[in-house]
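Think of the structure tokens as a kind of shorthand, similar to the way a musician reads notation: each symbol stands for something richer, in this case the local conformation of the backbone. In the example below we present two proteins back to back. Begin with the first one, reading the sequence and then the tokens, and try to describe in your own words what changes along the chain.
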Amino acid sequence: MQPGELETRKIFEETTTKNVQTGISFAQDTRKLFRELESKVTHLENIIRQQDTTINDLRNSLAVVQTKLFSGGTE
């Protein structure tokens, strides 16, 4: 081996190891973030469904009131 070749290989291996560990860490963090976002989206979809139901109920109630009002009274 030439002088410095052992040190160069050691530095190369350390750098490669750090790069691989960084890639693994990034992938794990990304998966965790994706799961959290997926949970939040599901929660928001449920809220939207509930609000749609509430809006439809209010529309039906309003239709009854309007029908009564426009039919000639509040009896």
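Once you have a description of the first chain, move to the second and do the same.
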Amino acid sequence: MKQPKTSHETDRANALRALRNAIVEGATWRYEQLVSLAVKAGVTDKEIDDVAHQALAALLEAAEQPLTFRELSASGCSAHFRH
């Protein structure tokens, strides 16, 4: 049977998830605060580096995916295309 996570483990996981989300969102103004919270939760520098690397890899992977005309239209892009 799976052991329930302790509060400490949950805090660490939440801190790493928040940092990863901030990196993916590009919320640079939150990085310092989130790294401080992660360190206080017991996250190591290596774990922070790994999460940052994973987030950047996800951004680059998503950037390589081409958008269709429909996706561009749905994104609210204000550019007008001539046919």
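Compare your description with these statements about the second chain. The CA atoms of residues 9 and 41 lie 8 Å apart.
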